[in-house]
Write a structure and sequence with these properties.
- By secondary structure, the chain is α/β, with parallel strands linked by helices.
- The chain has eight helices and five strands, in the order H-H-H-E-E-E-H-E-H-H-E-H-H.
- Strands 1-2-4-3-5 form a five-stranded mixed beta sheet.
- A hairpin with a 3-residue loop joins strand 1 (55-58) and strand 2 (62-68).
């Protein structure tokens, strides 16, 4: 298959790289991606030329964008997929970037893109440009939906006014509440993985990467005197044993 001219044009790739570095310099934590959201909308309207009516806000700082097909109707087939969604994340981590020599180092001290979400965002915006320019290649009545999700990293309880017990502090559930998956037949969420060779794309049905969960363990001891340790209940020793035992879960209990 011949690649479109834009994908062979070094200017296009340099623009995507420059956008990624710009986003890297201005990281924002979950549900605070105000500048990031604004910049994404600017790219979508001014460069991708997506009509404003096909862009809407979701989950406070997220976006739902529809690239609608204008091409000839698809011939009848057994495939009933009419809407495919592609998802990226917007937020950064609340940690300081240690590479002071990086020309595009974070300018927001204490916040940095250390998980690659800047690259995810730039990539999806590049996809938006290419798809919108080829809307006539997408059959009419078919849509590619672009999901720009805030707060992929969990946020503290109460952030943005969402119920932590229902969202886990993330932005995925609020995006769904705002209708991002309505009418969607397939959705692809992706994440960079530097351990794979450059140019490889791995896809499989269902979940691929884990999400962290939190729980509390309370160990109750009983004080005493150093001369009579047998009359005490030492929570330190018990806690150390719990830590060691927890590390065996992965090696002994998970497939």
């Amino acid at each position: 298959m011949d690649l479109p001219k834009e994908m062979l044009d070094n200017t296009f790739w340099c623009s995507v790289i420059g956008l990624r570095r710009e986003v890297h310099m201005h990281p924002e934590p979950g549900f605070e991606e105000v500048r990031t959201q604004r910049r994404a909308r600017e790219i979508l309207t001014n460069f991708a030329k997506v009509p404003e009516a096909q862009i809407r806000t979701a989950a406070v700082t997220g976006l739902i964008v529809d690239i609608k097909g204008t091409g000839p109707p698809r011939q009848s087939s057994d495939n009933n997929v009419r809407c495919i969604a592609l998802r990226t994340d917007l937020d950064a981590l609340t940690m300081t970037e240690g590479n002071n020599a990086l020309p595009y180092r974070s300018k927001n001290e204490g916040v940095s893109h250390m998980c690659g979400h800047d690259g995810h965002l730039a990539s999806l915006l590049g996809v938006a440009i290419l798809l919108q320019q080829r809307a006539d290649k997408i059959p009419v009545g078919h849509t590619v939906r672009l999901l720009f999700q805030p707060a992929e990293e969990s946020t503290p309880p109460g952030k943005a006014g969402f119920d932590f017990s229902k969202t886990g502090g993330g932005g995925a559930v609020p995006m769904i509440w705002d209708g991002c998956l309505e009418g969607v037949d397939e959705v692809y969420g992706w994440h960079n993985w530097p351990a794979w060779p450059l140019g490889q794309l791995h896809v499989q049905p269902g979940p691929v990467m884990a999400h962290s969960s939190f729980f509390d363990i309370t160990i109750t001891g009983r004080g005493g005197h150093g001369s009579q340790p047998h009359l005490c209940t030492d929570p330190i020793v018990c806690g150390a044993a719990v830590v060691s035992a927890l590390h065996t879960i992965v090696s002994r209990s998970l497939p």
